[in-house]
Amino acid sequence: MISAVAVGVFCSEVSFILGAREPEIFEMTKLYIWGYLIGYPFLTMIRILTPFLQMEGQYRFLATNSVITTALDIALDALVIFALHGGMFGIALATSLGYIIPFFMLVASFIRRKNTSVFRLSMKGITLKTCGEILRLGTPLGFICGSRAAGGMLINNMLTALNIRYLVAAYGVFSGISSCVSQSWMASADTLVAFSGVFIGEENRASLKEAQKLALIHALIYTSAVTAMLFVFAPQLAGVFLKSDDPEALRMAAECIRVACFSIPFHAIVYCFNNYLMAVKRLRFSNVYSFLIECGNIVPIMFFLLNVMGYRGAWVSRVVSMFLLTAIAMVYVYRNGEGATFRDKMLLLPENFGVKPEDEAAVIAGATDEVYELSHVAVAFALEHGADMKRARTYGLVTEELAIFLAEHGFNDGKTHSINARLVAKGDELIIRMRDDCKPFNLTEYYKALTESREHEAGLSIIMEMSKDVQYTNTLGTNNLIVRI
């Protein structure tokens, strides 16, 4: 909201900095900015609220909301252009409405599911300390947004200075296409952040490695497919995005797409790496890297290549910039990671993070009768790792009661479910991690509510009273419990 007001107040200066020099274009740019700023705060709130629904596994609702948003944006643009014959302010206002309406749909979803949603809209717990921590953790994204604006301004001015007709428009075509296909790398990068937080909390080294590998593989597959499509269909895409019949403009835009598209696979590595930096809270370097992604790297490279290669340096600079960012990521991992192999170093965590394979065991129970077997497995596991019989039986009892309790509350909806139990011995601690794909169920909140109402459940009391610590999270549609004995 503050940034929207600031841009609105200095709209004339911002328009000039963005390269709008001619009076007619200057006025059109100002009108578009004012119309867009109306919806900008709502867009920001959508980006904040959407991950919570992703973490709860509300994919169908999010997909429906996305389809509605796209259809609404197209319909409103058509209404403004063809029916109302509106100008740039009307077009931007249509875009803003495309943010405002989906925002209220998201809020309505939280309100409608207030009794079942793990996340609730509330002002409780909002303090200066928590606000400061949120700002600190969000600084990399702030650097991305700020440097993107600065980089776009500097690039536009460099391209305008060449005084080549259609150059800015051709470059803008690929920028627009990049925004449209950004989910081919951001989906995997955002998923990596969500899972990393869970696996780091569990000290699950093997799963964290697997999450990194799968995120990179999927992102590289998607971005490679997108690159191939852009290269093949560059002329057609140039016509769709540029909306011009001028052969030179279409040729230049198609050339830009066919060269710059080779930068897209590098986005998979760059954004997965940067998101992972945020997950492990290496915020200082993440701030620097975020600045390099959008401004600090590409601007000097483009300046150099424009002078060496002419206007084609603008396309090539996209590829060179992302390649160098990939190289920077690899050098950083090699110099700052710990471990014998590069995959170990990629975790960017101490070598003592997690446990050895022999100090953990995984068991999956898909039916109630299988749940009872967990007790025997847990007792044997505890005895193998130095626990006396009394502590081993306690470990087995808590494991069994926990699994039974979760099965009774989650297996009764007629669907097929499973409980994934991970038993861990680290130092003198015995740890149980339970994960299930049942409906959201916060065990600690449930126990707190029972205590306040003076109700009693024997199995749950055993779990809570015999455990040193119980932590619950819900991520990507799964319940996660970590219990320390």
Main-sheet strand order equals 1-2-3-5-4
Tally the beta strands.
Answer: 5
The secondary-structure element order is HHHHHHHHHHHHHHHHHEHHEEHHEE
Low-confidence stretches: none
Hey, roughly how much beta strand do the residues contain? Answer: 5-15%
Task: Report helical residue fraction.
Answer: over 70%
Going by helix content, strand content and strand pairing, the class is alpha+beta
Overall geometry: elongated
Cα Rg: 27 Å
Number of helices: 21
Write down the overall mean pLDDT.
81
Assembly level: single chain
The overall number of domains is: 3
- Main sheet attributes: strand count, strand direction, barrel closure: 5 strands, antiparallel
| Distance from first to last alpha carbon | 47 Å
Question: What would you note in describing this structure?
Answer:
The chain is of the alpha+beta class and 485 residues long. The protein has 3 domains: 1-122, no CATH class; 139-354, no CATH class; 357-484, 2-Layer Sandwich (Heat Shock Protein 90). Helices cover 71% and strands 7% of the residues. The protein has 21 helices and 5 strands. The protein has helices at 2-9, 11-17, 23-55, 59-83, 88-112, 128-137, 139-161, 167-180, 183-202, 205-232, 234-242, 247-260, 264-279, 283-296, 298-309, 313-336, 342-345, 368-384, 389-410, 443-452, 458-466, and strands at residues 360-365, 419-426, 429-436, 469-475, 478-484. A 5-stranded antiparallel sheet has the order 1-2-3-5-4, with helices on both faces. Helix 1 (2-9) packs antiparallel against helix 3 (23-55) and helix 13 runs parallel beside helix 16. The longest helix has 33 residues, at 23-55. The protein starts with a helix and ends with a strand. The model has no long low-confidence stretch (mean pLDDT 81).
